[in-house]
Known about the structure:
Oligomer: single chain
Number of strands: 6
Helix content: 25-40%
Largest sheet: 4 strands, antiparallel
Structural class: alpha+beta
Strand content: 15-25%
Radius of gyration: 17 Å
Order of helices and strands: EEEHHHEHHEE
Shape: globular
Amino acid sequence: AAMQTLMVQFGGEPIAVTVQPLNGLINIxxxxxxxxxxxxxxxGGLPAGQAETLAQTLVDWRGSRPDGTxxxxxxxxxxxxxxxxxxxxxxxxxxxxxxxxxDGSGGQVNPLAANADVxxxxxxxxxxxxxxxxxARDAGQTGIDTTSLDSRFVSTSSTERxxxxxxxxxxxxxxxxxxxxxxxxxN
Length: 187
């Protein structure tokens, strides 16, 4: 399933509702260090060396619990990234729309379920190519060429887990964002 944004009316107000398959996002709990480095460099705006170092810090952090108890650490929410030394709120805000902890994947991304910003990460920062892939997908084209994306990070897996986000006008040009993760087909 592909990411979709729909306009719905509620109380006479237009509301943008986005349905995002979670396998179209980068799972910070499972992504390999090179994918995390690409995320930090492309979406986070960090220099390559700093992105690689911070990505390895994140992988190391996942490998052990901060409190010293046995077993790997698992991020319970994307906000847990703020626990990582070197990730401040500004960087977190840039990464937030591209990440998840809740997709059950093996750490790869389905490009047909990804937004243009995630596609840009997969394309090594080539936002033009990412926009072409997103436009072809959104137009319903089949056989979309994704060979320009880094194949180490790409999967064609499906998911039953979605992020649903509603952007509700709140007056005076403000918007409230409501986001929920749902799992279809689970009891």
